[in-house]
Amino acid sequence: MLEQVIPIIITVDTKGGEAVFLKKFIENNEFRAPIIDVSTRATKNIAIEYPNYAVCKYAGIEINQLAKMRRDHMMETMGKGAALILQDLLSSNKLKGVISIGGNQGTAIASIAMRSLPIGIPKLIISTVASGNVRPYVEYKDITMMFSVADFVGQPNIITRTILTNGAGAVMGMARYGQPIKISNKPVIATTAFGNTDIAVSHARRILESKGYEVVAFHASGAGGSAMEYMIEQGYIQGVLDVTTHELIGEVCGDDIYTPIRSRLVEASKIGIPQVVIPGAIEYFCFGSPDSIPVKYNGRKTHYHNPYNTNIRANRIEIIKTAKVLASKLNSAKGPVVVLIPLYGFSENGKNGNALFEPETDVAFIDTLLENLNPNIIVHKLQNNINDIEFAEFAANIMDNLMLNERNL
User: How far apart are CA 226 and CA 142, in angstroms?
Assistant: First the structure.
């Protein structure tokens, strides 16, 4: 039987007791659990399959060079070395999951290593910082973050024993019962969604599914659109109905809490798969609570979506800049592209009578896009709001036509 491995990424110099405890627990449950020691200092003499000097060698340096580095570079080096060890285990079909525990340092190192793995491999970090902002650690990969409750200071105790075994049990459960991502037997269409475009996305999805497609929606939250770009790059997606291109305004102008991690509207154009592109929710910025909004946005039209999400209307300068970037991205596409423009609003909040209605700014976006777009790209301007059923039906049918044309080539 092929060896099944769930490695433990850990700083043994400060968490040797937890390392031994986790290793025994996992190995008592029929997985091998090699320790990957990412300590930056000398460690205690316990059984370590991948000691820190070996991790350094994977990263291309000797351990005595580590102390000469700036601290953040040390973390990156250990993360890179651990990532290469995981890649070795993955390529030999042994890797079934990975677990880590740590504070800020250990979490940073482990997340660098785990993000090198494909989506679908179980990844869990038990962390003292997991109750805070975890996006820098997770980015757009399927890393599970679990709050440690108590700190790790050398030996498991009445609290951490439970947390550690629950975390290990979660990874082993995912490894045993989780289903790996496989190429679908149906053509897969990716789409992008927001609450403000949900009616359009849901209706278009139902139509496309009735025509035999599998539709995967990605929330346009920065991480979601970035995950979609990654899945396109990996070959799982055959077409894109990009209803909610909101993330692009964050990419172009900054500030938006949903600024993407990977550049948007890149991979489909690069590979040449069919795209239907709509400026959904591209006319406003997303921020957190009202007190988190930078002063420079004061006085603009505002929609208070919930206590933790506030939407601010983009101005003419920002929208024109974004339209130029969108045109540039689409002009580089190797495959078929159709642009659909809902003339009565790019979102639910942007329709007549709602908080972000500002038709003159929408017109500036449309005019700029058309001026800069390759004239060979087909554009349909529809007398609809994005969430009108007629608009969603038109978008779904255009997507279907592009997909059928590609298959008939």
Answer: 12
